[in-house]
Design goal:
The structure is a homodimer. By secondary structure, the first copy, chain A, is α/β, with parallel strands linked by helices. In chain A, 40% of the residues lie in helices and 20% in strands. Chain A has three domains: 70 residues, Arc Repressor Mutant, subunit A (Orthogonal Bundle); 135 residues, ATPase, nucleotide binding domain (Nucleotidyltransferase, domain 5), CATH 3.30.420.40; 167 residues, ATPase, nucleotide binding domain (Nucleotidyltransferase, domain 5, 2-Layer Sandwich). Chain A has a five-stranded mixed beta sheet. In chain A, strands 14-13-12-15-16 form a five-stranded mixed beta sheet, sandwiched between helices. A three-stranded antiparallel beta sheet of chain A has the order 1-3-2. Chain A starts with a helix and ends in a 46-residue tail after the last helix. The complex binds zinc ion (2 copies). One zinc ion (ZN) binds next to loops of chain A. Chains A, B: This is ROK family protein. Chains A, B: Belongs to the ROK (NagC/XylR) family.
């Protein structure tokens, strides 16, 4: 869709808050420099965020001779955000403060055969209740719940259109969740959750164009272009796993042959291992997680089969990533999700080699390839970020205080903003370096 | 790079002029509706364009009871733009008015062995002089010359970094051209020129996300995302031709094997023909243009070899385009450039079938695949559009009148705007439908 001035206001609001979270405490002038926006625009956006109770003025910068400048920080207590990561084998839920520090966690296993929508919703609801109870007073104002569910998701209708591993078709997941949860709910998928987590808190923050290569059971390539998530015209951009890598290659559940996913997704890597070492003790039939972990330990210890499997996987991955580098000319490619986290540096090294062999020189020279620096579960963090974005989208309509924001709420009259607590903190003229790791 | 508020102002300026060219004559209110910008923003941008002498007020809309609203049109006489298409075998130059109507054309053949930079610059300079002479008074104010040259181009330094077919390396083409041409010069490559032509005047206009698949001797995929050209971090986005389509397939001049280009670029299609019909009379050894034209005539006449070659080519192309559809989820995919124009409807039909077999259902359902509707040489038109964008980029600094705009000019004081001629044209309340074909 075309960018409207409303889209641009929203994007600017995101960018300002992103920079405040990154660099807190920070002055309006520093924000203008960091975002490229005018000081007047920054002042307006900061005013909105102050009215929303999301920010607090933490003191004044010691300016030698000039007039004092107010420093801004996120008001961590301004509201809570919940991120839900529904995966094939577990449900993880985390409750965050507004600075995206984790206040409470809960997880539930999902056994095979317990993947009916009602069962999944039950697990989510009880885990959400658990984190709210654990967070105590910190959960007084839940601004929203972001929920990530695998597969194709229509975020506007809240329908999980297709989840291949569970054979879900057109499940009205948002409605089912809304019957159990009293908070505004934002539904999306893990690929976009990871990408948004990188954009707000990881390797894509402050970068113009980034590709987040998501390596899990499935495989995708989230696109963060021009500082925003590229969703495509029907919110399905990033389906990179079903790009043909090998003509007439391995069969894929999508109906095609030789898809990227069949070589570099966790089940594909298990196949690579089966081909390289059919009798390898690293192979744990039927258990992706255990196999990938065994492979990671083996590669670190120099086990020749493990080393070969990681290299083969990197070769397939590198050919695919080179095509992304050529096509999109990104500033950074981030390897994300649990398979990338497990295989770590050895995979990264081999991928860099393989991409260098396949990519054109000019885009290659402009691209950095890194492992995701986001600690913890990036899907929970990204899902919570969708809830944060939802609260920001509602801004300008009315304050988000009182947990009435989001698409599920009835229109409300603007509430008077709560008085802002000014904590008299003295900070030197050098801004305090922001945390890059938002999780505690 | 990140979007700054200056980028956004520039993008909005483009969008407003694009809509005025498309819908002229048009009211400010209609522009606000068409662009999603506020009426105040539209009024400011229109004011700038009026000051620049690019627009004219053509009369007032008959509004029943309301106050009369001024209608705007491009002032075609407000300046001339020149587009230069340097190709492997020819140089084409076209001179346009500000509404992008062609006022004059010139073309020069380039024989093999005449591709040294000095020789190419000589051809360009004489063709530019020829169109300026032919256009007579229309060329009084050339606002800029856009030049498209194949290969990798650094538009900021004006260096043709790599042109594989001529073995050019780091040619300072902009400097060489500037010695011969007294106008502001904007250098870029044919892929981006075609994409910008689709964005301003073709199938990508008014669409959110579009992919322009360029089928010539080389192959690329220009990306028009969010209403703007996606250039990537070092201006090389769109290098799709060197995506591996067939593992260990045909050798490519890039050093890899099985690149898309080796199957669907003109020389690749000649190979497809050689494989399907080694003795086919359609094959004109050493002559890409003649072979593709013979193939097009053969396919139209039902020649079985030609039909098979078009289908095979479409099969390769479809697999590649399906990957783009999955990854980017575009609203439209445009088949552009001379090979697509020659093979036309039969190619389009087979490509649609092949993409439908390979793409995922959700992005497929959201994507239309079309032949480029841009008549004439889209590279010349796109190159001239770069000159127009260059003139608009200079706006806000000073008026472009007087041919001093562009990166080659010295900073000048703002000139007083020329008085605007108001032609008293009466137009009904229904806006006149815009031309979709900007070329006369
Ligand atoms: Zn597949
Ligand atoms: Zn190649």
């Amino acid at each position: 869709m075309k960018r409207t001035s409303r889209d641009i206001r929203t994007a600017n609001r995101y960018e300002v808050l992103r920079q405040i979270i990154a660099k807190s405490p920070v002055s309006r002038q520093e924000l203008a420099t960091a975002t490229g926006l005018s000081l007047a625009t920054v002042a307006t956006l900061v005013g909105e965020l102050l009215d929303l109770g999301m920010l607090t003025e933490v003191g004044f910068e010691d300016s030698a001779g000039g007039r004092p400048r107010g420093l801004l920080a996120v008001d961590a207590s301004g509201g809570a955000l919940i991120g839900v990561d529904i995966a094939e084998t577990y449900v993880r839920v985390e409750l965050f403060d507004l600075a995206l520090n984790v206040l409470a966690r809960a997880a539930e296993d999902m056994r095979p055969g317990e993947s009916r929508p009602e069962q999944v919703v039950e697990r989510v609801a009880s885990a959400v209740e658990a984190v709210v109870a654990r967070a105590g007073g910190g959960a007084a104002r839940v601004l929203g719940v972001g929920v990530s569910v695998p597969g194709q998701v229509d975020r506007d209708t809240g329908i999980a259109e297709y989840a291949p591993n569970w054979d879900w078709h057109d499940v009205p997941l948002l409605d089912l969740l809304a019957e159990r949860l009293p908070h505004p709910i934002h539904l999306d998928n893990p690929l976009r959750a990871c990408t948004v987590a990188e954009l707000w808190f990881g390797a894509a923050r402050g970068r113009g164009d980034a590709v987040v290569v998501n390596l899990g059971t499935g495989v995708g390539a989230g696109l963060a272009l021009g500082g925003g998530l590229h969703r495509g015209v029907s919110n399905s951009a990033g389906e990179w796993g079903h790009t043909t890598l090998v003509l007439n290659g391995r069969p894929c559940h999508c109906g095609n042959h030789g898809c990227v996913e069949t070589y570099v997704g966790a089940p594909g890597i298990m196949l690579n291992l089966r081909e390289s070492g059919p009798d390898s003790p690293l192979l744990r039939p039927g258990d992706q997680t255990a196999t990938i972990e065994a492979l990671a330990r083996g590669a670190a210890a120099g086990d020749p089969v493990a080393v070969e499997v990681v290299r083969d996987t990197a070769r397939y991955l590198g050919a695919g990533i080179a095509a992304l580098v050529n096509l999109l000319n990104p500033e950074v490619v981030v390897l994300s999700s649990w398979v990338a986290a497990a295989l770590g540096e050895p995979l990264l090294r081999d991928v860099r080699d393989a991409v260098a062999r396949h990519a054109l020189q000019r885009p290659l020279a402009a691209t950095e390839i890194v492992l995701s620096p986001v600690p913890g579960d990036p899907v929970c963090l990204g899902a919570a970020t969708f809830a944060l974005e939802g609260a920001l989208d509602a801004a300008g309509l009315r304050p988000v205080n009182g947990a009435t924001a989001g698409r599920r709420s009835v229109p409300a009259e603007p509430l008077p903003a709560e008085p802002v607590t000014v904590r008299p903190v003295t900070v030197g003229s050098t801004p305090v370096e922001g945390r890059t790791a938002p999780l505690s």
